[in-house]
Design brief:
The chain is of the alpha+beta class. The protein folds into three domains: about 140 residues, PH-domain like (Roll), CATH 2.30.29.30; about 55 residues; about 90 residues. It is built from six helices and 15 strands. Helix 1 packs antiparallel against helix 2 and helix 4 packs antiparallel against helix 5. The longest helix is centred in the middle third of the chain and has 24 residues. The two termini are about 15 Å apart.
Length: about 325
């Protein structure tokens, strides 16, 4: 379940589905099993490596399968909390409205646009909800919950992706790398490439072809760092009511800005750019010209979908172009 609204209920969920857990566990088990032939050798080091790999794989599988899935259902009168492990019973808890004395909305250190509800009970206990996946309406969601539970003085979270902002911001403003740092990295690349050659000369040995080949490779690497380091700085998106400003850096550190308008967009999709769908999903905009723009990392697939939906609304993208 997501934090969608069914009647007056708000639903929040955290934890992978059983199918996702089985896929991840199967992959981890397969990798661990690749080391089993080492158990049948007479080499002590191979046996140790195989045992360690199997233990790590077993621990990884156990961690995946034993992490509980948590669901919160927030109604006008209570909070229903459900927690279930893959092979365990469903554990439920009901928190009445009268037991809630405070509400805060802490952000995440790892993912900037991720927010959770932290309720303080009359007993002093603190309950933290799963993340709010609709990151574009965090302020409305928090204000609504605070009103229906009668919680005073709830500070509105600072959310760069909230739909109430005139400009939604994805990523961080860009700054070129300091020239001093670029020179240091370039010198390190040259020094590392020269170490094997210098070592052979110091020992009075003839340098091999590999040692000689490393010298121009180090020079090329230093030039590439000097010329292209700023190209890896990423992008900064400013999502406005009628267009998107995409800022990037040229190799020399100067700013480059592209503008995306609704009539230019062919499709909007969500993609995963990393190992996990919980933290590494982005929005991808493809133009009619064939160009693609990939947003900075947003978070989970649900969070990225919420941002993509708000982009489509602001740019007035037709439903057939919104593949989210």
């Amino acid at each position: 379940m997501d934090d969608t609204t069914t009647s007056n209920d708000i639903r929040l969920r955290e934890g992978s589905s059983i199918a996702q857990r089985l896929v991840m566990s199967g992959f981890a088990a397969a990798v661990a099993l690749c080391f089993t032939p080492g158990l049948f050798t007479h080499d002590t080091m191979e046996i140790i490596i195989s045992v360690v790999a199997l233990l790590v794989g077993a621990g990884f599988v156990a961690g995946i399968m034993m992490t509980p899935a948590v669901v919160w259902i927030i109604t006008s009168n209570e909070i229903l909390i459900g927690q279930q492990r893959p092979f365990g019973k469903l554990r439920t808890r009901v928190v009445p409205k009268d037991n809630i004395s405070g509400l805060q909305v802490p952000g995440s250190r790892r993912v900037k646009a991720r927010f959770q509800l932290a309720f303080t009970l009359a007993s002093g206990e603190r309950l933290t909800s799963p993340p709010i996946s609709d990151v574009t309406h965090v302020r409305d969601t928090v204000a609504r919950i605070a009103t229906q539970f009668g919680v005073p003085d709830v500070e509105a979270p600072s959310n760069p992706l909230d739909a109430s902002n005139p400009e939604m911001r994805l990523g961080e403003p860009l700054e070129p790398f300091p020239a001093r740092d670029i020179r240091i990295v370039g010198l390190i690349a040259v020094a590392l490439s020269a170490v094997p050659y210098a070592y052979k000369l110091w020992r009075g040995l003839p340098p091999s072809h590999v040692d000689i080949l490393l010298l121009p490779i180090g020079a090329i690497a230093a030039f590439a760092v000097h010329r292209y380091a700023n190209l890896v700085a990423g992008a900064f998106w400013i999502i406005r009511p009628t267009d998107i400003r995409v800022e990037r850096l040229w190799g020399d550190g100067s700013l480059r800005a592209d503008h995306i308008e609704g009539r230019d967009v062919k499709t909007i999709t969500v993609e995963r750019r990393g190992r996990s769908e919980d933290e590494h999903c982005i929005v991808v905009i493809r133009l009619h010209s064939g160009r693609r723009f990939r947003s900075p990392r947003i978070g989970s697939r649900l969070e990225a979908r919420a941002v993509g939906t708000e982009i489509a609304r602001r740019l007035r993208i037709a439903a057939e172009s919104n593949k989210i």
